[in-house]
Design goal:
The chain has about 325 residues and is of the alpha/beta class. Helix content is about 45%, strand content about 10%. The chain has a single domain (about 1-245, about 255-305), classed as Rossmann fold, CATH 3.40.50. The protein has helices at about 1-10, 30-35, 55-60, 75-85, 125-130, 140-145, 155-160, 170-180, 185-200, 210-215, 220-230, 235-240, 255-260, 265-275, 280-290, 290-295, and strands spanning about 10, 20-25, 45, 105-110, 110-115, 135-140, 205-210. The strands form two sheets. The chain has a five-stranded parallel beta sheet, sandwiched between helices.
Amino acid sequence: MGQALLHYSNWHRQGAKPNIFIFSTPRSGSTWIKELIGSQAGIRFCNEPFNLRIPHVKDYFAVNDWSGLYSDPINPRVFDYIDSLYAGGRDTAFFNPFPFRKHYRLKTDRIVFKVLHALEDRMGEIEDRYHATMVLLLRHPLAVSTSRKSCPRLQVFLSSPYARHFTSEQLSLASAIVKTGSPLEKLVLSWCLQNAVMLRHQRKHWLVMTYEQLTLDSDTMVDHVCEQLDLSHRDLIKQRLGRASGSTNQSDMATRDALSAERSADSAQFLVEKWRQKVSVEQEQHLMAMLPEFGIDAYTAGRFLPAPHFWIQS
């Protein structure tokens, strides 16, 4: 009954503007950017469509773990599933919000997909098949890793066909960390394995943005996001910018206070640097040395900002 209600609670007819796929790692600000885009009229959210910890998603794919989403060639049910989400199908209506809840809209014409789990190596295929707009959101690996508690796909990255994207030396290093590394080392490794593939295969016209610039240089980023994603109402995004996202219940108290306060230079700086309170200089040097091993130059030790070529100019 609930599924049927959700199906009929939304009237979706695809408009002229392409749908948007946001790819990111957990705890990188993806909920925030999704909700900024969702300030525009006609937007429908599809939040973490491949998260197998959501019972409906697991039931749809009939798989026990994420390795079932990393088959090679791609599992045809993946595209059937996305097709159903595009069409507002009854079997995927569980993603629709209940009427009168937050983010509910009766009529929509554009979908924002927030993808945190799976298909990192299939972004190009998704763009080509669906003529979608692709967004890659990055955040400093230590900021992400010190705020996560687990990395459930780490072993899958190494034991599924996804591993073909790495050299034997990289896989040997990863296996050693999985075997003897600390929890934080494993979390940083998971960040590397997920982001290395997306960065290596990125296309020049994709919107590649960073949490740090969105936080510290929001005017430039809002202008760029509106232009790249064809969003009409910049003022609505600016109004939404200073409000905490729906995922702040996973943040610590100091972070919640910074997010709920009026956005200032000090609070913004705190949000991008707070991970430094959790790791020593020696730990930072050791952990960040992992990135170049996987061909990642987006962040380096001693800097909380991304590399200059990842900083979008106004």
